[in-house]
Amino acid sequence: MLQQPQQPQQPQERWRGRGRRVTRTARLARGAVLAGSLALLPLGTACSGGEDDAAKKSKAMPTTVTAAPAAGAVAPAKVEVIANLTGCKPKIRIDADELRQGLCHTKEIDYLITTFPEEKYKRAWLDSAAVYGGKYLVGLRWIVSAKEPEMLEQFLTKLGGTIQQLRGIGPTPAPSAS
After folding, report:
1. Model-level pTM?
2. Element (H, E) at 53
3. Residue 82's CB: how many other CB atoms inside 10 A?
4. What are the CA-CA distances from residue 159 to residues 72, 76, 140, 152, 155 (Å)?
5. Cα–Cα distance measured from residue 121 to residue 99, given in angstroms and rounded to the nearest whole number
């Protein structure tokens, strides 16, 4: 059998996929660039505009609230918090992805507190409720509804928001003749 003469391997070259040769000089240059960038990394991070811990915490926990004008309290979109501000302990009726609804029962009134994870769900709920008409106390991502709409005025001072009158479907009642 004939043997092919072996060519001496050159120590400064090595094969790197797809037929490219990487020379020893190129490898040394890459190593120098890598070492230089690693040496500059602490300087880059030390000189960057970092934030203090308080700023990081405030960004980590965004809050959305609606201020109550008279009471100076806030009513975030959480059934239990709104119920506490109105003086009741709610019984949760619905706990879904689109809304949470709690029933409050007091000596004076029964009312519903409905909260929403996003404003778009509140708008959809109001669009659906427009069929029935009625008055609602509406805040940022929450709604309070009651059989006696005059009670909503009391909640307005505690929670903020606005009272919205929804028309409903059907003819408008004729004004009574006095």
Report:
1. 0.54
2. helix 53-60
3. 28
4. 9, 9, 10, 10, 6
5. 7
The tokens 């020379």 sit on which residue? 23
- Cβ contacts of residue 146 below 8 Å, gap of 6+? 109, 110, 111, 112, 152
- pLDDT value of position 98: 92
Q: How many CB atoms lie within 10 A of CB 145?
A: 18
Please give the Cα distance from 173 to 171 (Å, whole number). 6
Distance CA 71, CA 157 (A): 6
Structure tokens at 76: 């975030």
CB neighbour list of residue 118: distance below 8 Å, 6 or more residues apart: 141
Say which amino acid occupies 87.
G
Angle between the N-to-C axes of helices 79-86 and 150-159, in degrees from 0 to 180, rounded to the nearest 10:
110
- Residue 16: CB partners within 8 Å, gap ≥ 6? 22
**Secondary structure letter of residue 2 according to DSSP:** P
pLDDT of 106 reads: 83
Contacts of 156 (CB under 8 A, 6+ apart): 137, 162, 163
With a cut of 50, list the residues of the chain below it in pLDDT: 41, 43-46, 48, 54-75
Residue 146 CA to residue 109 CA, distance in Å, equals 8
